[in-house]
Every structure is written in structure tokens, then in C-alpha cells.
């Protein structure tokens, strides 16, 4: 059984059909990158996976269990799926430690006395153990994004979703965030990323998904697809992004 099974998913916003029958399996430990033009449905697909959106038809299974906005165990499901967006959304009036431990403490995942150790361990994984007492505004964009990743890690997710997490960063800060994600990949985290970072898609990902007009247009081994796109649409996309 795949960790995530996406079966013939259709998603509309009113009359606009945004996902037109998307099917995709994500195995445990896989690093899946989703590429495609703006408006092709990449963000919508990610948001469907953790039920930030409802779907009109089809099915999404996480660890064999159907995901939906009205599922009984929505909160439990969300704790298994971390999502990081382009905007880091840290709480500006809270220290980095508190930002990272808020959810685990509130959900009872960790007792308050153990929270600092948890914060230290996840901040260490993103190279920011020395920023425990800092506030978000004292950090660079790249550091804030790494904190946002650490905040997800603090919930011990089974799956992490990243939606263009480096797109808003100054170019010189992109590398440090990619490095953190690469390290997570190496440690076996299952990850799905929407990204424009073609080097990451080619060299780190285990699967490449090209979306076009609400459909999975091509999917497969990244290196083969980059070397040998099967459709003119992917060929042209790669041409414009490398
Ligand atoms: P991508 O991430 O590939 O750029 P999106 O999934 O964000 O694409 O959007 C796919 C399509 O759905 C676009 O045409 C977009 O305008 C539309 N869309 C996205 N979110 C909404 C929304 N909340 N309401 C209406 N239309 C939306
Ligand atoms: Mg998007």
C-alpha cells in the first residue's frame, strides 16, 4: 500500500475545473516533485492531500484511510501531514522556541517541560539551534523558512508537503533551505514538493510529476523525463526552466 493514493481526483472552483482526474501514488520514503506552469493545479493538489480543499470526485487515501474535510479524524490526519508554504507564517510576537513548540504542546504531543528539548532537536536539524530565543524578525528569510520547516518536524509528520518554499527568497538564501530539504530526504522523510528548482527535481527527487491543465501530463523517473520528455508540453517547460 502506498503512503498516499490519489485516485481520479476532480476539483472544481465553481465552474472552473482545476483538477481533471488526477491519479498519483506516493510511496513511503519517496521524494516527489511537482512541476508545471502557473495555474496547472499544483497548489490545489497539495492542498487536497491534507484536506485544506474538498474534492468533488475521486478519492485520496493516506495510509489507507480516506482523507476529507469532514473526516472524523481530521486533526489526527493533519498532524501526520506537515505543510510549508511560500510565506513562512511564523508568529511575530513569539520566540522561535515557542513558534516551534506551540502545536506539539497544544495538541498534547509533548509535555511543557520536554518542549525545549524538542525545540532544540528540530532546530538542530535545520541548523538553527542557536536561535531558540530570537524572534522571527531577527532572522533572514531563509532562516525563517527553516524555522517553518522545523515547526512541522516538531509534529513528527509522516509526510511533508512543500509549496514553492524557496520562491519568495532572495537567490542567495535559496541554497540553505534546499540543503535542509535534501538532508530530510536523505533521512527518509516522505516529501512532496511543488518547486521551480529544476536541479532539485532532477537530482534529489525520486519521482517527477509534470502537471498541465489540471492533469498529470507525465510522471516518472526524473532523470529519464528530463532527458527524454514524452510530450511537447514537458519538452517546452523544461526548455524554459533550465
Ligand atoms: P498552480 O499552483 O499550479 O499555479 P493552482 O492550484 O494555484 O495552480 O490554481 C489552479 C487554478 O485554480 C488556477 O486557475 C487558479 O486561478 C484557480 N484557483 C486556485 N485557487 C482558487 C480559489 N480559491 N478560488 C477560485 N479559483 C482558484
Ligand atoms: Mg501554486
TrEMBL record:
| UniProt cross-references to PROSITE patterns, sorted A to Z | ABC_TRANSPORTER_1, ABC_TRANSPORTER_2
Q: Which UniProt keywords apply?
A: Amino-acid transport, ATP-binding, Cell membrane, Membrane, Nucleotide-binding, Transport
InterPro entries linked to this entry: AAA+_ATPase (IPR003593), ABC_ATPase_HisP-typ (IPR030679), ABC_transporter-like_ATP-bd (IPR003439), ABC_transporter-like_CS (IPR017871), MetN_ABC_transporter-like (IPR050086), P-loop_NTPase (IPR027417)
According to the UniProt entry, the coiled-coil residues are none
Q: Which Gene Ontology CC terms are recorded?
A: plasma membrane
Q: Which family does it belong to?
A: Belongs to the ABC transporter superfamily.
UniProt protein name: Amino acid ABC transporter ATP-binding protein, PAAT family
